[in-house]
Every structure is written in C-alpha cells, then in structure tokens.
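We include the pair:
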Amino acid sequence: MTMYEEISKNKHLSYVLIVVMTAVLIVFGYVVGYAATGVGWFALAIAVIIAVVMSLTGYYKGDKIALATSHARQVTHDDAPQLFNVVEEMSIASGNPMPSVYIIDDSAPNAFATGRDPEHSSIAVTQGLLDKMNREELQGVIAHEMSHVRNYDILFATLVGVMVGAIALMADFFLRWSFFGGSRRSSNDNSGPLGIILVVLALVLAILAPIAARMVQLAISRKREYLADASGVELTRNPNGLANALQKIADDEEVLEVANRATAHLYIAQPIKKFSDKKRGLFDTHPPIQERIRILREMAHQAPEPQAAPAAE
C-alpha cells in the first residue's frame, strides 16, 4: 500500500470511527441509563447528548486537551531556535503546513504530535529530549512525528482516545453506582424480565467494553508507530538518526511524570516505563522499541551508498 493510500485509508477510518464511536456510546449509554433509571426515553436522550458532545469535543478540542493534560507550553522561534529550524525542515520535506510547537518541562526524553489535520496540528517535545539528543537524532524524532501528522494518525489517535475515555468513564460510573446498591434497587423498580436483563447486560458491558476498547486502541497505536518510523525515514533519508534517538530513549531511566493512560499512546515511545517493564503484550501502547531499532538499522544497512559527485573536467 502506498503512502497516499495509507493517508486515504486513515481519513476514511477516522470518519467511520466517528460514526461507530457515536453509535457505541449511544447503545452503551442507553443500556446503562435504562438500567439505572428505568426510564427508556430519558436514558436514550442522555446517551445521545453524551455521544454527540464527546464526538464533537474529541474532533475539535481533543488536541488542546492532550496538550493541557501534558502541561505543554507553546514556544516561539526565539525560545527554541534549533527545534523550530528542525520542525520547519520536516514541514517543508513533508509538504505540510508548519505545526504549532510545544515544550513539556520534563527531563525524560519523549515527544508526540496531535491535532485533527495538518492545518490544525501541534508537535510537543520534552525538555529532556532537547537536552539529550543531537541535531541528527532530533531530526529523526521530528520526522517521525511529522509523519503522524501527514498520515492523519493524529486525528485517528485522538478520536480513539476520546472513545476509550468516554466508555471507561461511563462504565466506571455505573460500576460504582452498582457497588452502592443502585442496580438492585433498579432491578426491583423495573418490573418484568426486561429490567433484570438490562441490568445484567449493563454490568457485563461495563466490565468488558472498556477492556475491548482499550485493546483496540493499543493494537492501532502499535501498528501506526511502525508506519511512522518508515515514513519518517522517507523525510530524512537517514534511518540512523531515529534509531539512535530511540536507543537513547530506551536507555534513559527517567519516567515521564506528566504521561498517563489516556495520553501514553500518543508518544514516540512508551512513557510509563515501570508499567511497560512489568506488562508486555496485548496492553502495550507501543511495539517493542528494540524491534523498531532493529528494523531501522536494517534500513540503514540496505540503503544505497551515496553516489560520488562526478569529477570536474
């Protein structure tokens, strides 16, 4: 599949995801709402309102929420001239508009991109990344993030994150309400077997839906990282820059304090290292970093040697 086919596929999947996310939230919200209140029309109205608000919020404000929760501050060229120069280079190389640039005041090296399209995109890097990377490595990281922008991964990742967050929030609310006896009162109030069935169904969905949504989110995130690595190399023509940067990030023992489970999948490398070290497999937000480095090293080995310029006559 070519790069342009990948971009077209990502756009299509993003719009499909908006429809699916809205439908899932409506169904889940209706079941939970009916089980909690026993009033069908009220539960459906609340579910529709929540689904529409979450979908619109994710589309228009998801990037601002991610930047705010990461404590990122927007900077100008005078604040970080080398970073700005590298972002400008990769912006030109990718053919995308210049994104907004943010710095996270954290000593752990990491970075992420967010936004809904290349015209509304942002790239955030940690102060630790600026302090520990040379220019070639910084270029590799920015090229990776610019690829997420060019491939429309940013919209897809933001919408998936909002969907997972909304389902988890709704499930958590219902489970806490049930823990304090709400479901028993509701099943008694809702006459007939339908009320009991909906209460049981809501309990099952409240437990399984967040797990399923989370697994889908992580599987998508892992796949997009491999593609962004390869796309980033297209921009720099230098696999070693990104490979060396990932190796430095892997060797760094500091944990990114501002990262959390809602934003971890956005970063170039797993920021919650203690969790990652203990749990590897289905719940990883990223593919194994050593595997990514191995693939990039192979690209460097397979890359054709630069042709020597013909001698002047």
Summary: The CA atoms of residues 128 and 230 lie 24 Å apart.
